[in-house]
Amino acid sequence: MVQIWTVENLATLTDEGRPRPWLAKDWTVSPDGRSLTVNLPPNLKFHDGSPLTATVVANALQAMLPNTMGPAFEDVEGVSAVSDQQVVVRFRRPSPFLLDSLETPIPKPGSSLVGTGPFVVVDPKSPTELTANRQYALGEPGIDRIVVQSFPSVRTAWAELLRGRLDMLYEVGIDALDSLETSSSVSVFTHTRHYQYIVVLNTQSDVFRSKDVRRALNFAVDRDAIVRDALNGHGIASSGPVWPQNYGFRPDLPKFELDARKAAATFSRGTQASNRAGAFHFTCLVPPDAVNERLALVLKRQLEAVGVDMSVEEAPMDRVFDAMKNRRFEAALIEGISAPTLLRPYQLWHSKGTFNPGGLGNATVDAAFDRVRHAGTEKEYEQAVAGVQQAFMDDPPGVFLAWSVRARAVSKRFNVPVPEPGRDIVATLRLWRQVTEAPHTSQN
């Protein structure tokens, strides 16, 4: 959370998944698509006054691109500073992932919290207090000081906010959202996160080796009902890994929708063929969280209607990831990053992706994402994205449930600018202004 306000990225991403300059002044791509020149504005400085030079940026890219790009980093031939304000990244072949990777943050070497952002951490050993960066390149922030406080529960923090003892509640759970929206002293801001709830399936397990079974499981799910009943209406139904606002997304392509009759017929044939009595059975690992528990309960009830018995096994997140890494699971409920670019789901679902804990995806998915990675033109990119959507229909490695919604609550003592579509208000904190001129401390 603190890094959002202290360290800036070379680029930010629009809700369509297109990068736009932020810390970078601009950039150009060579006609053959194998060279990217990033231009920096003059006189950029870190919080401690040291200059941000092209050499610093080149070194940061060399260190961070392997993690940012995952297996696509194989396409990078080299990164170099050609002047104090210009960095050149050379590639072995064109790829749309090259510009996506400019989302890379640029901290001062040796410190993850010293950057060029609008706020400065007072004590890096205990980063709970920040002050305004008076020399910020885009102008001095309207808030002088931020103090971050932790609470044992959302309910406790919510009560403090309503009593006027807090100015902002950073994380509003969906259980408290409806109550806060009726408050006369608090404004609630929501945005759809770039994460979605997914039941990942172990395609190498006996129970989910068949893609017909995995397709049937997807047809058994009423995603609109999941949003309504498990998320209190705060979410967007999903059936695949591609962000629906991405500029390559094809809304006209087939997607998984509820077809209980088709699903039931598949599972009925499956149990007869294996000479098993009763329902088709599998176990799903679920992290301990009220929302996850409701999601699992609603999903379990839906699957029962088509002859599927899903056992819910609660497990801490580290155990869930360990099970996925070692393929010792049948299914697991996770929140996976999927937007706004294709680089993010590529990193999660490609077998060599940095975010892939191990065992997610399959050969069909790998091939589809590799076509996106190597798309040379925007037309090829759009065709490749359509191929990803189709791959997850033909050979689904999971059940995509819903894009999650995040909410922030802010005291009406502050004037908060309306953010762009899909943007989180925390990114605009430097532009907030107090409604009154009385000195005030902003707390989370």
Beta percentage is 15-25%
Instruction: Tell me the CATH topology of the largest domain.
Output: Dipeptide-binding Protein, domain 3
Task: Look at the structure and give the mean pLDDT.
Answer: 91
Give a short account of the largest sheet: 7 strands, mixed
Query: Structural class of the helices, strands and pairings?
Result: alpha+beta
The tally of strands reads: 19
> What value does the Rg take, in angstroms?
24 Å
From the spread of the alpha carbons, the general shape counts as globular
Number of domains: 3
CATH architecture of the largest domain: Roll
Through-space gap between termini: 11 Å
The CATH superfamily of the largest domain appears as: Dipeptide-binding Protein, Domain 3
Poorly predicted sequence stretches spanning 5 or more consecutive residues: none
Helix content: 25-40%
Number of helices: 13
Q: Which CATH top level class of the largest domain fits?
A: Alpha Beta
